[in-house]
Amino acid sequence: MSIGGLFSRIGRSEAASGLAMISPPAIYAILLLAAPLVTILLYSFLTDGYLEIIRQFTLCNYFGPCGTYKMVEGELVQQAQFKGAWSDPLFLTVMLRSLYVSLGVTIATVFLSFPVAYFVSFHVEPSKKSLWLFLITIPFWTSYLIRVFLWKVILGYNGVINSALLGLGIIDEPLQVINYNVGAVIVTLAHAYAPFAILPIFVALEKIDRSLLEAGQDLGESSFTTFLRVTLPLAMPGVVAAVLIVFIPTIGDFVTPQLVGGPEGRLVANLIQLQYLKLDNYPLGSAMAVSAMAVVTAVSLCFLFLNRRFLRGPQS
Amino acid sequence: MTEKPTMPGPTMIEFRDVQKYYGDYHALRGITAEIRAGEFFSLLGPSGCGKTTLLRTIAGFESISSGVVLIDGKDMAQVPANQRPTNMVFQSYAIFPHLTVAENVGFGLRREAGSREDKARRVTEALEMVGLKGYGARAAHALSGGQRQRVALARALILKPKVLLLDEPLSALDKKMRENMQVELIKLQRQVGITFILVTHDQEEALVMSDRIAVMFEGQIAQLDDPETLYRRPKTRQVADFIGTMNFLPAEVAAQTNEGYSVDVAGLGRCEITEAQAPGAPTGGPASVGFRPETLTILYEGQTTSDRVSEGTVEEVVYYGDMTYYDVKLDGIDTPVRLSMRNLPGRPVLDIRTRTRVSWSPGALVLFR
Amino acid sequence: MKGGTGFRIYAMVYLVFLYAPIVLLPMFAFNNGIIIAFPLQGFTTQWFAALLDDPPLHDAVRNSLIIAVSVSILSTTLGVFAARASTRFNFPFKGPLMGLIMLPLVLPEIIVAVSLLVVLLGLGVSLNILTVILGHVLVCTPFCIAILTSAFQSLDRSLEEAAYDLGETPLSTFRLIILPLVMPGIVSALLISFTISLDEFIIAFFLAGTQATLPVYIFSQFRFPQAVPVIMALGTILVCLSILLLSIAEFFRRRGLARSGAKDTGGFL
Fold first, then answer.
1. CATH class of the region C54-260
2. Which listed residue, A191, C143, C192, C265, has the most CB atoms within 10 A of its CB?
3. The complex's ipTM?
């Protein structure tokens, strides 16, 4: 019984007690998260067989022409041909588009959210802060699919906006710029991830010692320059967290592009889903997933590096 | 003020060369000491000196790296905290916030035999003892600091432990409340007659409350004595400095005599010092002497004394109401010495730069290595 | 602080943006028309009535409830272990282990889904409710840990020592002191993980096999325009249920803070 390790006095050391206590969730995560992640990494270097995986190392899922093979009398016989992810113009186009969408969503979400977080932290009475946070978080937890679908309804050709504008006589023909494109995807995702951006920024703003702002003004800064020179730098850890927590997951969304993106709005997650569920090409799907994660990680690390001066020092 | 005769009881707690390491950090460096039954004992020292660690080794919350801890003659090495005959009052009081006052006080009775009525009676008695009669049904989280302290005391004492451990129990209270509780704790200890071990960093608190005090620095006991000896005859400059204020002057041991030492003190001349005034047992050569501010007296116009007299100039005056502290630069000494005078009628407070005579006695000096 | 009016207006507009889809939902759920567009066609409850007569939907609801209940219990249990370990002990590999456990918070769900899919199929496990539970526990546990960590953090360590000092064993100390004090956090974690699991689509879509969950069923219905009003009705019920559960969770979270006397730092995350 790991609870038995409560007091180091009765036998075990603190390290052993801690490890015993962490072991159930840690073992769960190692078996069902770390091991599977390693597995797709391995799969991405294996050869696709017909409904099976052939254990033969290859890089062709990433680069160059690749194929699906079948073992016939001990020999590999090529059944079908496809291009490795990075040699496939379609993948490159979609990957680039995904990056563009994720960056767009991140920038839109963080810029739109910052004033809200600032408002709740600096202008709302302390007793009402948790009510505001609760109001902001609620939509995030409620029926993701239906929310996305409703954006399709709102932005669609016969959607709420168009029918309302037509009904009011402002336009004669439904607007097409707002539906089934990348823009619609960005709006929908920005909506979905709003609380994710607000909360970390809010937490960072809450930590700022209010007397620092008074000190800034006391030293001759205006309230705007105080914001730029004191508040914003101190809030940066929260902004960085918000950026990462929005940017990374958005790359994996395939529902939003499928429902509101139209044919030109498909993203890399749609391709991955296609490989796994429709084409059963696990090695190529794995290579795409690994590639997408690598790109996201690289961008995130660059971003962290650029903001490193805000992340130093005591943050806790 | 509450100087009690030391009760020489049998030994209740014994430390034999207790060592404690946290990784590389050497927290307790060979503690050897005895605490007697029925004694009010204090562990005094600056933060980080190991006093709380030592207390927690008695309670059983800290294991020791080597050495022996005996309680009532029994080796505690294999006895876990929940089976030791000790109970603790925590610095934060650790009142269970989800229970009532009575449930808190009666918490330890859960495992004891006895009828429900009997236990309820004991809780009532314990509450009465700490002056919280009728508070049993209150929610614990609604109590004031002083009341929490009393609940913590009642909760620990209800189990009739052999030793009550108090970890800085008064540090969270304001000054007035702290002074009241000091007196109450002393009374309570006399009433129940069990060993109290108090951890504190407040030297005044330790002097007021304790039968004996162990002063600790850096994991070691620097001196273990009753309050008066500790104050008047500190063994080292470090102890002297920690307990109250002491002036130090460089000195040289000129000769060892039958009664003690002949010492040349800078600016004061040759002084004869008894063996008892040198508890640190100097060996000769460079040394220093110390004296408390109250052992120096300003001589007003026309006053005479049989003590020795030095002259000097007042450099600083600090007025405290009942007392005045003066920093006086005595002729022939570089650094000013601090002295304190009661503000009695007919004793005007002197101004800065006044020339004055100061009387002192070699019998009040302490000789340090 | 002065000059808050502009911010207040902006925040209000932002809330309208956040709530716009949720407000539209009941409008179309009670709208007497197949097409989801303005102007509204009049009031009806027929879409709600249609929910009662839809066996595949009922199967999906049953699957989702089984999954959500199991997930909330499992992930809260794992969360208790992790939160207790991280707030009370120092141990080797603490950072990497906690990082791994919390990773699903930022990892795209599709990555979690496909990696689990690959491993489960590779092991020859057939996809069903159980596999969805495995995946959901992975994504719900970090949220539970976040909630429970703040509950465990506000526990004064000397409370445990006091109980132990008064003769209790570590186990009875946990039962008598720790558990009651973190109970609001546990209830809150149970409700939050239940809500997340009930709503989760991507992992369920990959791992459910033939046993569709509610979101998987809803997604399949989007292809049929005539089914959409019924989905609106269903969505209305789900949103109301979510808000109810979240309000209860928030209530317990705040009560827990009030009880331990800690300061409210707001929010679930």
1. mainly alpha
2. C192
3. 0.84
